[in-house]
Amino acid sequence: MKKFLALSLMAIFCAATLTSCDPGVLKGWKYIETRGQISIGIDDTFTPMSFEEKDEEQNINVTKGFDVDLANAVCEELDIEAKFLPLRKDNKPNDLKDQRLDIIWNGIAKTEATEDKLIFTSKYYKDKMVIVSLSDDVSIKSIADLSDYKIGIPLGSAADDIIKAHADYNSFKEKVTTYEMKSTIDPISYNLALQALKNGDVDCMIVDGIYADYYNENNNDNKFIVQEFNFGEIELELAFRNGKGEETLPEKIDEALKKVIESGKAAEISEKWLGKNIFE
Question: Potential cystine with 239: which of 71, 73, 118, 158 (Cβ 3.0-4.6 Å)?
Fold first, then answer.
């Protein structure tokens, strides 16, 4: 009996010890700290924030951009490795829940549909969701005008989140075409929506203001015409898993982000990609 009791207590102790060390059951910052790596979801067609570009010397695609550099600086502050993965259009909350991702850095908006499922924090810059066209024939001065034009949107993007949550969405939703890249993971694709606009398949496109500004600064011909009406100012936030114990990760990321901003590193990154310091 004593031997059986001793073996039972040992089994319980071993199980408890293994559980406490298993990254699969750890939560929040402890889970990331144990792994030494964080999986960051990004829209990898979202120039200049996060996009892929071919490195001709190494003959590989490299992920770069404002958000990539900023996330790397935050991870360096925390002494962990950043692993960037493309967002999947219909799986953003589930990819956090299932631990494919630990954080969504861009390509998501805080709406009623996402607010209860995720933890949002670290409002690190403000932007506007704007409507752009390539033709002078397009004139959108109010939301009522949207029903007169064909609208292109990257499926699953922050723009997609915001307009679908808008009170007047039903008044123009029949005019909306969403664009997605067909692949094994179905990532968001700004590039396909932009190509549709250039081809004349749609009359206008709803995008982040920062995307529109960067496009115009880097294209001498066929610049975007930014329409008078827009969907207002938005605060860009980072999204995390929700649940007991998960709040320690956003707290840690928030602390590190503040240090990166205070050190001046964030300003350098902003000047490099955006031509201005958005942290002033």
Answer: 118
DSSP state of 87: P
Single pTM value for the model: 0.78
Cα–Cα distance, 275 to 193 (Å, whole number): 25
**String of b and e for 34-44 (b: at least 16 CB within 10 Å)?**
eeeebbbbbbb
C-alpha pair distances (Å), 79 with each of 38, 41, 76: 11, 19, 5
CATH-assigned architecture of domain 23-126+235-274: 3-Layer(aba) Sandwich (3.40)
The average pLDDT across 56-80 equals: 91
Domain definitions of the chain by residue range: 23-126+235-274, 128-233
Whole-angstrom distance, CA of residue 263 vs CA of residue 34: 27
- Domain 128-233 classified CATH 3.40.190.10? yes
For 66-77, the pLDDT digits (tens) are 999 999 999 999
